[in-house]
Every structure is written in C-alpha cells, then in structure tokens.
Amino acid sequence: MKKPRNEPVVIQAIERIFRAGRSSTLPLALGDDAALWRPSRGKETILTCDWFLEGTHFFREKHPAGAIGWKCLARATSDIAAMGGKPSCFLLSLALPQRFTGKWLGDFLRGLRRASRSIGCEVAGGDTTPSERILISVTVLGEIHPGRAILRSGARPGDLLYASGTLGEAESGFEQLRRQHGAPRTANAALRKHLYPRPRLELGRWLAEKRLASAMMDLSDGLSSDLPRLCSGSGVGARIETGLLPVTSEANRHQALEFALHGGDDYELLFTVSRRKAELLPPHVRGVKLTCIGQITREPKILLLDEKGALIPLRPGGWDPFRDKQAIR
Amino acid sequence: MKKPRNEPVVIQAIERIFRAGRSSTLPLALGDDAALWRPSRGKETILTCDWFLEGTHFFREKHPAGAIGWKCLARATSDIAAMGGKPSCFLLSLALPQRFTGKWLGDFLRGLRRASRSIGCEVAGGDTTPSERILISVTVLGEIHPGRAILRSGARPGDLLYASGTLGEAESGFEQLRRQHGAPRTANAALRKHLYPRPRLELGRWLAEKRLASAMMDLSDGLSSDLPRLCSGSGVGARIETGLLPVTSEANRHQALEFALHGGDDYELLFTVSRRKAELLPPHVRGVKLTCIGQITREPKILLLDEKGALIPLRPGGWDPFRDKQAIR
Fold this sequence. Notes:
By secondary structure, chain A is an alpha+beta fold. Chain A contains nine helices and 13 strands. In chain A, α1 (9-18) packs parallel to α3, α2 runs parallel beside α3 (103-119) and α4 (169-179) crosses α5. β2 (44-53) of chain A pairs antiparallel with β1 of chain B.
C-alpha cells in the first residue's frame, strides 16, 4: 500500500503562499468543502470564469510560471472590468503534473498572489488534481450597483466606438516571444503586456459610475473578432477607421495595423458612447488613453475604412480557439 | 483565410439547450462578458469548484455523456450540501475536442440540464475552448444564513459520528462498470449511484437549520480518506466500528466493507452531533437513512474497531488523485 497523503502538496503550497484566513468579506477561505463569501448589501454579483490551458493559451517552455499565475487571474478579471464592476474574490481550479508541484508551482502561485494583491481580488478556494498538462480555470466574483453593469447589448446606431490603451501591443509582445528561444530574457512594454496584462478595472468602473458607456466588452481575442460580438449583442453594425486605431510603435506600420485589428490578449476595453455623452469623455482616464476608432451603424456590417479611403468588410482574423487549432496563445 | 466562426457551435448548443434568459436572481446569464447574479438579502454565499476530467474522474468509453453532464454538477453541488446550504447557480468551464461538439455535447448538456433542474441550480455562464481531452470544471454558488454553515472544524471529543445513506454503493457500481465492456447496458441502484449521484441537499439544509451537526463534510474520496480531513479540521480523532457501517448489499461482506471504508463517489454526508443533540436525530430525514458509525475522540488518531473486536489504525485507502495515478475515477 502506498503512503497516504491526505493534504496534497499542492493544497499545502496554496495555503502557505496565500495564507488565507478569515476576512470581513471571506469568513471562510480554503481548507473546507467550500468557501463563504459575504456579498455587499444591495450589490449585484458579477460571475465569470476563464480557461487558461497549456498548449492552447500558453506554452510551458515559453511562458514563465509567474506570468502564467499573474495572467490567469488578470484575464479572468478583465471580464469584471468589461462590466464596469469591482473584483472581490476568485476560485482557482488547477490541474498539473506531479513533477510541477515544486518550484514551478511556487513560482506560479507567487505570480498569482501578485496579481491578486494588485487587482484587489482575494483567493476564496479552488480544486486541484493531477493531469499530464497544466490546466487552469479561474472563476472571479465581482460586484456592481444593480442596473449599472455595462452590457454588450446597449450600443445604438450613431454611438461612437472607443478603445482604451494601445491595440495589438500584446500580440507584438507575443511575436517577440515566439522569435526568442525558450523563456524570455528581457521584456519591453509589449512583452510585459503579453505576459502581465493589467485589466482596465479603474476605467471600467469609472465608465459605469458615470453612466457614460452604452455598451462595453473587453478585447481578448482581437478587435476583428470581438467587435462583431459587441455588434451582434446590440443588433447593430460598426464602421471603424484604420487611421484612428491606437497602434503599437513597436512594429512597422503594416504589422502594427494587423496586430491592432487581429491581435489578441490586449485586455483593453471596447465601448460605445452616445454622441451627446461623448463630449464628457476626457482623452485619458486614470492614466489610460481613450481613442475614438469609429462609430456604430444601423446596418449590421462590420466595415473598415482603410488608409486609401476604401470601405472594406472587416473579417474576424483574431483568435478563435475552436477555429485556430494551431495558433496557440 | 479560414471561415470565421464568432459564435462557436459549443456556445450555441449551450444557449439552445439551456435557453437561459433573465430571472429574478439571474438578470443576465450567458452571452455577455460575465453573468449577473442577485444574492439574497442577508445571506452568505457558498463558493465551490470541482474538476471533472476525462481519464482522471471518468472514462469517455465507459461513462455515458448524459451521466458526465449530470455528475459534473451533482458532485460540485455536494459541497454546498456539505455546508448545509442551498444551491443557486453554476458556471461551466468546458473544453472538448471539435469532434465531440455534436451528439456527445448534446447528450452531455441534456444530462447537465436534468441535474440543473433536479437540484434547482441555474446555469449562469461559463467558458468553452477546444482540447484533446474532455475537461470540465464546475463552479457552484449557494446560499446560507450567516453563521449557519457547518464547517469541518466543529467536531468535539465525545461527539457521535454519522453517515447518511449507504457507504460504498457507488464504488460497487463503478466495479460493475469496470467489469462490463464499453458503456453500461443496465443500471442497478449501485451503478445509478455511481453515474447519477444525488447530493444530499435536503439533509444538509435540515441539519443546518436545526443546528444539529457540529461538523460536516461530504464523502467524495472514501471514508478512510475523508474522515481524517474532518478530524484534522477539528483537531480531534475518531473511532469507528466496522459493525456499524451502512454497507451495500450488492457485494459480499468483505468487499462491501472495503467499499464502505475506501470507496469513493458516494456523495453522502459525514457529520458529527453532540451526545445531547443526538437524541433529537431521527433515523431517517427526508427519506435518507442516518447511521451512527462511531465517535470523535480527543486523541488525534483514526481507529477502526473491527469485527473481531480489535482496534486498528484506519489508513486512507480512498481516492487521492495525486497518489493514485492509475486508479481512475
């Protein structure tokens, strides 16, 4: 009979690194059948979960364990930002090979803890099991005042379309990572954005509190894939202009445009604002640049006004894991 | 360029089969960046997530898709029962090969929907992505009055130890399934318990409402693995008696005892009751049999009084996925 191990090393590592105890909002975290969380009075709870799988969303050889820990929470929390909410706590489902339960796990959990502290989202609980590949699913709970969540369905013809930050920067960083051998040695802004994205939580909350955005979502799969989802949710179309896109300066113009249109993992916010309210929108919010990139149209088509003045249909070239089996991100 | 597919077939199937709309507790489910859930006023939220992985927790060739759908929610909800709570909604993280997005997915989702309706736990959202194996993680939210959750940490020396239902029955069913070729043809009570477990939600709530149990957990990995967790949580030991165990009649005595001690997947409740309150405990609650199987001791050892009257240490022989790499469940 093999040696019994009732508290697997993974759970011990999680409890050691997170040292979760009782807090006012989490009277019980880790170590029991389930966690207990106290929702704020009068708030709605925002719920989201996000896969982060080896070979699909990251490469073990390319992505540092700490970046995987950071990013699995950051990207899940980006959905809370996209509703205009405030993150509260998360659950970690982690499956990994036995041989990664040492240094790799420690580095992963410290990256996750850094994200948890930076974002203000406490660990509530989770589940661990062994598997041949590293499998991660993160569930995040956030909160918002009832009626204030910004949905994908609120865009109206004539609304202006905005994006935060720089588009395609993370893709440019991933391109650098692909070209390097093994794990990254240095990280410029683009690579940092790919490895350690920062969800636009402050901007999302600001837009929800001021009731400025009519529709919103986060850009995870690329503008050309995500914009049709927002338009479909609202039953509208959109026309964007190449010349308006806030592209990265870390690539040549052609590539920067490709990245901005089709690159994923930016976790910027894409939102619409009525023309009347657009006047109230400053060029920056909490240090994040806002750029008008086009407008919402009645006709349910996604059109791109290119640099030669031609209006062409924008086809999804961003990342769809069920389509792009080879295009690992 | 490949054909774009913005609404993957998996999401369409989920939306078609669940037809999730707006309800009073779920003003927004499926189809946006995140879901919106309205917690009941003055209640605490119970949070839990559970892996259910092909090759680790089920075999695709052995387990019908509908049973996989049922069981992934039922077993996650069992953790809500183990706290004495009421389930409210769930999130589904589902990764599967493209070739299973047809009939297999439909059968899986219909099994999941049956569990969802039977348990009273609505779908709130989820995430889907392709993978070589079928990967499932389910997050369940439940509710309970503040202070009423029954933790693992409340057992005191002298408390009596109880189990609900029959122990080892699911393991006996799994044993039948292992012996059969391919998928099951007929299902007796034991096999049904393995394939379609019913979390003891009514019993859990009854015990919490009546404040009868001092500690509680659900039996998922087997009594000999789970009892030490409850004892460790409470800083106590336990002595159980072979002769008291509610064993299955679908195996010979020796095997039935092995199943009851070490078999997993029962999703029965294991709980402790002070001697004073034990008088108030009926033999059945909501049709579920309650059996006193031993008592809590001050000395932190797990001992078994066997049928010959010998007191022997009970070693974990239940299921620990990080230990039992071969013992697939």
